[in-house]
Amino acid sequence: MGERRSERPPRHPIVIAQLVMFAGLAAVYIALQLFDPIPLWISAVLQIAIAMAGANLALSTVRRLYPPERRSSSDNDLISGSFATVGAVYALVLGFVIVVVWQQYTDTEATVGREANAIADLDRMARALPVDSQRQVQDAARTYLRLGVHEEWPMMARGASSTRAQAALVELWTVYTDMEAKERGSPLYERSVSRLNELGDNRRQRLNDSQQSVSPLMWVMLYVGGMITLITLCLFDAKSHDLHRFLAMTLAGMLTLALVLIGALESPFDENLPIPPEMFQAVLDNLRQLET
Q1: Which residues form a coiled coil (predicted)?
Q2: Mean pLDDT computed over 139-163
Q3: What is the 3-class SS of the chain, one letter each residue?
């Protein structure tokens, strides 16, 4: 009686179940995004879950299309070298993009702080001006801050700006350009004009930063590079299938988390990780307290 060969169970149901799980998570994420913007942490969890389910599906598909028993030792050496090269290049690109967007984000925070400090200095130095000029400067400064907090900040999430805030800035300039020669002789006049220039420069920089984003070509490179890195890992011939699956899903989750971070930092005023107008509000509250 000949030996009975053990047959491996068909893997079609497993692959189909993984495909259903991946498609279901993706459908839930798309549906939530269409109906109402979801918090960043929920979006990140869903994207990581989708990526891990996709990695699980990709590993099963690769092992079915290119099973380990068809690979030679030279194939494994080639895959190992390719993964090291692809992984190193992708890690370099990914790290570079993260550093750039983080630096831009912190620079924008610093710009907002300088803008708030400039208008606070204008208000303080205006107290040395004649009463009429002082009141005009203070009224325009408060209007600028109020419009910045309540009108311009929400508009910057869409890459727009407030024309009324711009008009308040023009009003500030008008107050100083219309001053008489005697008032311009004050030592604080030149310093005030300098602060006014800083205010305008920082506002322009802030509005420019609100329109900055990672280029579409870079996004394509990040996503395609991540998929290539993941597929190369799936080609490895690991003795433990469970360990191989864990490593692939972990890599997919980590790469997705990095991409979510880049997406949250690239637009410093949108709903993901917005820079709040707290510095503007703090200056406005302080000016109101000085009035009482």
Answers
A1: none
A2: 92
A3: CCCCCCCCCCCHHHHHHHHHHHHHHHHHHHHHHHHCCCCHHHHHHHHHHHHHHHHHHHHHHHHHHCCHHHCCHHHHHHHHHHHHHHHHHHHHHHHHHHHHHHHHHHHHHHHHHHHHHHHHHHHHHHHHCCHHHHHHHHHHHHHHHHHHHHHHHHHHCCCCCCHHHHHHHHHHHHHHHCCCHHHHCCHHHHHHHHHHHHHHHHHHHHHHHHCCCCCHHHHHHHHHHHHHHHHHHHCCCCCCHHHHHHHHHHHHHHHHHHHHHHHHHCCCCCCCCCCCCHHHHHHHHHHHHHHC
